[in-house]
Design brief:
Blueprint (H helix, E strand, L loop, with lengths): L7 E5 L13 H11 L3 E7 L10 H5 L4 H21 L5 E7 L6 H12 L3 E4 L3 E2 L2 E2 L4 H11 L2 H19 L3 E2 L12 H4 L3 H16 L3 E5 L1 H4 L9 H9 L3 E5 L12 H10 L14
Parallel strand pairs: 1-2, 2-3, 3-4, 4-7, 7-8, 8-9
Antiparallel strand pairs: 5-6
Helix pairs in contact: 5-6, 6-8
């Protein structure tokens, strides 16, 4: 039996065709994965917004509407399924989508699942009190002010994440500690008792549902020092025997597969299993 870890990403493939803050054609991104030697990849485009209130700033700037993005998302699934068949002899593509967690999200996501029948979903939290906190440092600080403090914002984030996991049961829990994105003191803050308790509670839920945690490499592509999840949480996940799988969170051809080899080295060094599970739809 060949136990050599194979290249994989279960959170990636954002393309300029279907995401305003990404670049390049989806097919070119697929071809890049094939060129790099990937045999399996999960493509997980962002779901369209519930309404115009939740448009990203770049979508507003492009004068797009929620209706426009719903149609674009339909086009995404149509093309992805076509590419899945076209390149079936070279790579196994899992057709997925990355969720949002904001007012009304549960019904919205379930309707999308019913309509498009994805192979799996990535469950992510990008909003706190409907503020898109990871878009900019300014929005991040605004979310903290609304919550009352950075500590309170972290606690709110992990509470929202807990409810999302319980509600959607996503096969992959996306960038678990994204809330640290603009926080220079995140390593200390994540260890605060009130926050650490919520982290462990969420990890316990992930383990009980047999879900996968996304070892998200987007920070490395930005020149940061470590992926999501940070080392302290990664060690706890290992102790709890939670599965962790690389996700490049790629937004262009150049980012497809970026740092996945490094992720595998890190996971192996921490003793994680590197015979990757295939994603399934659990909701």
């Amino acid at each position: 039996m060949n136990t050599t870890p194979k290249l994989i990403s279960l959170h990636g493939g954002h393309s300029g065709q279907y995401c305003n803050h990404a670049r390049d054609l989806l097919e070119d991104i697929i071809l890049r994965y094939i060129e790099l030697g990937f045999t399996k990849v999960g493509i997980t485009e962002h779901v369209p917004p519930i309404n115009d209130k939740f448009l990203f700033p770049d979508e507003k700037k492009a004068n797009l509407t929620a209706v426009d993005l719903a149609k674009r998302f339909e086009n995404y699934f149509n093309e992805l399924n076509a590419l899945k068949n076209k390149y079936a002899s070279k790579i196994k593509i899992f057709a997925g989508m990355e969720t949002e967690t904001c007012t009304g999200y549960a019904d919205h996501i379930n309707k999308l699942i019913s309509r498009f029948q994805p192979d799996y979903i990535v469950g992510s939290v990008h909003h706190i009190d409907d503020i898109f906190f990871d878009y900019s440092k300014e929005e991040y600080n605004r979310a903290a002010r609304v919550c009352g403090s950075y500590d309170a914002m972290y606690e709110k984030y992990f509470d929202l994440q807990y409810e999302m996991i319980k509600t959607l049961k996503p096969f992959v829990v996306g960038h678990f500690d994204l809330i640290r994105i603009y926080d220079e003191d995140y390593k200390k803050r994540l260890l605060l008792p009130e926050i650490d308790q919520k982290i462990k509670r969420n990890l316990t839920l992930i383990k009980s549902l047999n879900l996968v945690m996304d070892f998200n490499l987007r920070p490395l592509a930005r020149g940061e020092k470590e992926p999501y999840i940070t080392t302290s949480i990664l060690k706890t996940a290992k102790k709890m025997e939670i599965r962790v799988v690389p996700g490049d969170d790629s937004h262009s051809v150049n980012e497809a597969g970026l740092h996945v080899d490094k992720a595998i080295e890190i996971l192996k060094a921490h003793g994680f299993e590197t015979q990757w599970p295939e994603p399934v739809l659990l909701t």
